[in-house]
Specification:
Domain Glycosyltransferase 2-like: 12-136
CATH superfamily of the largest domain: Spore Coat Polysaccharide Biosynthesis Protein SpsA, Chain A
Enzyme class: transferase
GO molecular function, one term: CDP-glycerol glycerophosphotransferase activity
Strand content: 15-25%
CATH class of the largest domain: Alpha Beta
Order of helices and strands: EHEHEHEHEEHEEHHEHHHHHHEEH
EC number: 2.7.8.12
Protein name: CDP-glycerol glycerophosphotransferase
Distance between the termini: 58 Å
CATH topology of the largest domain: Spore Coat Polysaccharide Biosynthesis Protein SpsA, Chain A
Helix content: 25-40%
Largest sheet: 9 strands, mixed
């Protein structure tokens, strides 16, 4: 009878670097889990503050926690090292400056117990200055689903995070999964492969509280050439996996909605960027979207136009467009073609000469009117 079966053992990997102010909260949230059968390894990734000492203190207090001290190798390397040192039927990753809701692992493991899927993913909240905020796009992606394949919901590829998921360890090992090392944005290639290779459960429960803080890896200045190079590299790796999967529908959703999703952040940085950064931005746009262009992407109208202008090497107009858009109080102005009734973006002539732009780059979709 399942009534007396043992709870599954969950292995939790906690990479830690320079988090002396946050590690205690993180570990306390693990100790507060309603699922209590877990083992955790804190990987002290060459910290120069008190992080290593704090980790050792927790290991002395709770025999479910161990610590590995290593030279600094970055987040991907720390996670991979942790996987080698942790046991369990299931595997999870917890960033050391974030916290878990009390039922996070019980919710994820409960779904996997019932479905037999290879991994499960739940929604998140961002821990911002004015409280916890669930991003609307995360809520949209996390309509409940069990035993799914990527063809059932290709847009789930946009949930790239490592830490709102639990994997079946047998699947992780059999699929040969690991985190890329020596590059930022290392979550996306591995989570993409997980969705492509495995079956998964999608939960609408919030299973993670993501702390947005200055100085964290995710807040690294995106205006650096290395940051943008890393972003392109992990997008390239992810796209290669999607293409190898061989589903035109999944590839279309991935290229237009997932791969393009964060580009608006980079377009905002065009004013004042260096020539080297601009060349790298343009080369990535041309490589990944090419003749299809960003006109067909899920970006907002102004950023679709910006993407088209980037591909055309019209830097001055991208700069003017971004500066104009940032000064708007609401949505960008629109105009209707008298003859056809079609709606389009209306941009001042001093910003962009619309007569020199592909009409598709200005066109509005029905839901944008």
């Amino acid at each position: 009878m399942r009534l007396f079966s043992r709870a599954p053992l969950l292995g939790v990997v906690i990479p830690a670097w320079g988090v002396e102010d946050y590690l205690d909260d993180c570990v306390r949230s693990l100790l507060a889990q309603t699922h209590t059968r877990w083992e955790a390894v804190i990987v002290d990734d060459g910290s120069t503050d008190r992080t290593g000492d704090i980790a050792d203190g927790w290991a002395r207090r709770d025999n479910r926690i161990s610590v590995v001290h290593s030279v600094n190798g970055g987040l991907g390397a720390a996670r991979n090292l942790g996987v080698q040192h942790v046991r369990g039927d299931f595997l999870a990753f917890l960033d050391s400056d974030d916290v878990l809701p009390a039922t996070a692992y019980a919710d994820l493991l409960g779904a996997l117990r019932d479905s037999g899927s290879d991994f499960a993913t739940g929604s998140i909240v961002r821990w911002e200055a004015d409280g916890m905020v669930e991003p609307p796009w995360m809520r949209r992606l996390h309509r409940p689903l069990r035993g799914a394949r990527v063809e059932d919901r290709p847009e789930i590829l946009g949930d790239v995070f490592a830490w709102n998921k639990v994997w079946r360890r047998s699947f992780w090992d059999a699929a040969g999964l690991a985190w890329p090392e020596g590059v930022r944005y290392e979550d996306q290639p591995t989570t993409t492969r997980s969705y492509l290779d495995g079956s998964f459960d999608v939960l609408d429960e919030v299973v993670y509280r993501w702390r947005i803080r200055e100085g964290s890896i995710t807040q690294t200045r995106a205006s650096s050439v290395q940051d943008l190079a890393d972003r392109w590299e992990t997008k390239r790796m992810s796209l290669a996996s999607v293409r190898a999967h061989g589903s035109p529908e999944v590839e279309s959703v991935f290229v237009d909605r997932v791969l393009a999703g964060d580009l608006w952040r980079y377009f905002l940085l065009v004013p004042g960027c260096t020539p080297e950064w601009w060349r790298l931005l343009r080369s990535g746009v041309l490589e990944l979207w090419g003749r299809r262009t960003l006109v067909h992407s899920g970006l907002p109208p102004v950023h679709r136009l910006a993407g088209w202008l980037v591909a055309q090497d019209r830097r001055a107009e991208v700069t003017a467009l971004m500066e104009w858009a940032q000064g708007l109080d609401g949505p960008a102005p629109r105009a209707q073609d008298v003859a056809t009734g079609a709606w389009r973006l209306s941009v001042p002539h001093a910003v962009v000469d619309e007569t020199t732009v592909d009409p598709a780059a200005l066109a509005l979709r029905d839901h944008e009117v």
